[in-house]
Write a structure and sequence with these properties.
Helix content is 50%, strand content 8%. With 185 residues, it is an alpha+beta fold. The protein folds into 2 domains: 90 residues; 83 residues, 2-Layer Sandwich (CRO Repressor). A hairpin with a 2-residue loop joins strand 1 and strand 2. The termini are far apart. 19% of the residues are buried.
Length: 185
């Protein structure tokens, strides 16, 4: 059977439209951070919100206001945790992964690559997609917290001014490289 009765279809239609409108309102209220590129933290919140919205729309056993309360709690918790991350680096480090340095001055950092489960082929692909034909063209490749790769081109700034300064395992003094490290590429 396709449906029980027209009242069930009407309930789903109304609950979905109202919950969708409320979700849009709550997301606008909570700010752009809620919809930013997703880290694991953001992904969990997004999946939970989708699940609650589906439950509100389709479950007859979940009262509408209880579902809306769940949406408000999820978005409020995401907002609160994001706000706490701004105020405390310790909380930020607990909740959000740090960017990881994968390639520095022509050298693949094998230990970091293993721990992040990234291959040389993944890094080379990221470089080619950004128009680089050689690892010599870039100072560093970073795996960002959202899973994307970024390349820093010819970094010549002091470490205190470097865009790499918050990248996990970036220590300029530990990564001195000679011209031999480029020979295989």
């Amino acid at each position: 059977m396709f449906f029980d009765d027209w009242s069930g279809i009407g309930r789903v239609l109304m609950a979905t439209l109202v919950a969708y409108g409320a979700l849009i309102f709550l997301l606008r209220l909570s700010g752009k951070r809620t919809l930013a590129k997703m880290t694991a933290f953001d992904f969990v919140v997004t999946i939970a919100i989708g699940s609650v919205l589906a439950n509100i729309a389709l479950s007859k056993s979940t009262p509408f206001m209880e579902g809306m309360t769940a949406l408000v709690v999820l978005i409020g918790a995401q907002y609160l945790i994001s706000s706490m991350c701004i105020k405390s680096k310790k909380i930020e480090h607990l909740v959000k992964p740090q960017p990881a340095l994968l390639l520095y001055q022509g050298q693949f950092l094998q230990e970091t690559m293993r721990s992040e489960r990234v291959t040389e082929a993944d890094i080379l692909l990221a470089l080619r997609q950004r128009g680089h034909s050689s690892v010599k063209d870039v100072e560093a490749v970073i795996l960002e917290p959202d899973g994307s790769f970024n390349a820093v081109i010819n970094e010549t700034l002091p470490a205190s001014e470097s865009a790499l300064r918050n990248v996990h395992n970036y220590r300029p003094q530990d990564h001195e490289v000679t011209s031999e490290s480029f020979s295989q590429y």
